[in-house]
Amino acid sequence: MSRKNKVCVVGSINMDLAVNAERMPEQGETILGEGFAMSPGGKGANQAVAAARMGAEVEMIGAVGDDSFGRLLVSGLRDEGIRTEGVRTMPGTATGTATIILSGGDNRIIVAPGANQQVSPELVRTQKEKIAGSSVLLLQLEIPIEAVTAAAEIASDHHVPIILNPAPYQKVPGELVEAASYITPNVVEDMAMRQESFYSRIEHKLILTKGEEGAAYSAKGKMETIPSYQVDVKDTTGAGDTFNGVLAARLAAGESIPDAVAASNAAAALSVTKTGAQAGMPTRAELEQFLKKE
C-alpha cells in the first residue's frame, strides 16, 4: 500500500472560546470585551485541518468529551475530510477548551485539557495501523507525553517520518526527540530546548518558526532563513499550527525541506490575515495563488 500523501495527527482537540479586547487586562483587573467567538481548535485538530486543506489524506487520533462541544468538533473534522475513527468519546469527561484573549494582533491562551488528558499510550496503540500506514506522523504536546512517545515508537518501528512540534513546551524525553525526524519549535521553545543536554544532537533536525522574521531550517550545518511576508495581521492564533500542518502535508506529498518550509511559511503568513485558528487556514488553491502573486 502506498503511503504517499497520508498524514496522521495524534494530538489535542479543543473548543476555542475567544474574546476581543482593546488591551490586555492587568492582574486582578476586569475590562469589557468587544466581541466573543466560539470556534474549533486544539493544536492537534488545527494541524490536521491545515494539512487536509493542502489536499493530504488525514487521520486524526485523539479524544473528546461526551458533550455538545465534542460532537461539534468531530463533525467539523469530518466536514474537512479528516478521518475520525481514531477519535474516542470519553464518557463523563468534558471536551478540552482554550480560552483566548485577543488584543492588538496578539493573544494570550489558557487551555483546560479535559478529554485530551485521557489520550493514553493504550489508546494510541489501538490505532497502530493508522500510524504505520501514514507518510508522516505529526505530534504536539497538548496530550500526555507518554501517549506522544508511544505514537513516535510506532512510527519509528515502521520507518514513518515524525514531525514533533514541541508546544506547549515541556521537558521532552530524550528518546522522543531522538526519534523525531524534524522538530519545529518557535523562538521561545527553541530557547527552552537549548537548556537540554540533547540539544547539540538535534540541531540538524530543527525547523524554526520565527514569527515576523519568517522561518529557518537546518541545512549543511547552518540555519537557512526564509523571510516573512508583509501582511495585514489580524490574529496570530493558529499561525504555528498552520505552519506545521502544511509542512506535514507538503513533506507527505514528497516535497523537499526547502520547498516545504517555504510553502509553510507563506501559509502561516496568510493565516494571520484572518481571525480564528482554523478559520484563517488557507486552502491549497489560496496558497498557490498567494505564492504566485508574491
UniProtKB/TrEMBL annotation:
<dbReference type="InterPro" id="IPR002139">
    <property type="entry name" value="Ribo/fructo_kinase"/>
</dbReference>
<feature type="binding site">
    <location>
        <position position="235"/>
    </location>
    <ligand>
        <name>K(+)</name>
    </ligand>
</feature>
<keyword id="KW-0808">Transferase</keyword>
<keyword id="KW-0547">Nucleotide-binding</keyword>
<comment type="similarity">
    <text>Belongs to the carbohydrate kinase PfkB family. Ribokinase subfamily.</text>
</comment>
<comment type="function">
    <text>Catalyzes the phosphorylation of ribose at O-5 in a reaction requiring ATP and magnesium. The resulting D-ribose-5-phosphate can then be used either for sythesis of nucleotides, histidine, and tryptophan, or as a component of the pentose phosphate pathway.</text>
</comment>
<feature type="binding site">
    <location>
        <begin position="42"/>
        <end position="46"/>
    </location>
    <ligand>
        <name>substrate</name>
    </ligand>
</feature>
<feature type="binding site">
    <location>
        <position position="241"/>
    </location>
    <ligand>
        <name>substrate</name>
    </ligand>
</feature>
<feature type="binding site">
    <location>
        <begin position="240"/>
        <end position="241"/>
    </location>
    <ligand>
        <name>ATP</name>
    </ligand>
</feature>
<feature type="binding site">
    <location>
        <position position="276"/>
    </location>
    <ligand>
        <name>K(+)</name>
    </ligand>
</feature>
<keyword id="KW-0963">Cytoplasm</keyword>
<protein>
    <recommendedName>
        <fullName>Ribokinase</fullName>
        <ecNumber>2.7.1.15</ecNumber>
    </recommendedName>
</protein>
<dbReference type="InterPro" id="IPR029056">
    <property type="entry name" value="Ribokinase-like"/>
</dbReference>
<feature type="binding site">
    <location>
        <position position="271"/>
    </location>
    <ligand>
        <name>K(+)</name>
    </ligand>
</feature>
<dbReference type="InterPro" id="IPR011611">
    <property type="entry name" value="PfkB_dom"/>
</dbReference>
<feature type="binding site">
    <location>
        <position position="274"/>
    </location>
    <ligand>
        <name>K(+)</name>
    </ligand>
</feature>
<dbReference type="Pfam" id="PF00294">
    <property type="entry name" value="PfkB"/>
</dbReference>
<feature type="binding site">
    <location>
        <begin position="14"/>
        <end position="16"/>
    </location>
    <ligand>
        <name>substrate</name>
    </ligand>
</feature>
<feature type="active site" description="Proton acceptor">
    <location>
        <position position="241"/>
    </location>
</feature>
<feature type="binding site">
    <location>
        <position position="142"/>
    </location>
    <ligand>
        <name>substrate</name>
    </ligand>
</feature>
<keyword id="KW-0630">Potassium</keyword>
<keyword id="KW-0460">Magnesium</keyword>
<feature type="binding site">
    <location>
        <begin position="209"/>
        <end position="214"/>
    </location>
    <ligand>
        <name>ATP</name>
    </ligand>
</feature>
<feature type="binding site">
    <location>
        <position position="237"/>
    </location>
    <ligand>
        <name>K(+)</name>
    </ligand>
</feature>
<feature type="binding site">
    <location>
        <position position="186"/>
    </location>
    <ligand>
        <name>ATP</name>
    </ligand>
</feature>
<comment type="pathway">
    <text>Carbohydrate metabolism; D-ribose degradation; D-ribose 5-phosphate from beta-D-ribopyranose: step 2/2.</text>
</comment>
<keyword id="KW-0119">Carbohydrate metabolism</keyword>
<comment type="subunit">
    <text>Homodimer.</text>
</comment>
<feature type="domain" description="Carbohydrate kinase PfkB">
    <location>
        <begin position="5"/>
        <end position="284"/>
    </location>
</feature>
<keyword id="KW-0067">ATP-binding</keyword>
<keyword id="KW-0479">Metal-binding</keyword>
<dbReference type="GO" id="GO:0004747">
    <property type="term" value="F:ribokinase activity"/>
</dbReference>
<feature type="binding site">
    <location>
        <position position="265"/>
    </location>
    <ligand>
        <name>ATP</name>
    </ligand>
</feature>
<keyword id="KW-0418">Kinase</keyword>
<dbReference type="InterPro" id="IPR011877">
    <property type="entry name" value="Ribokinase"/>
</dbReference>
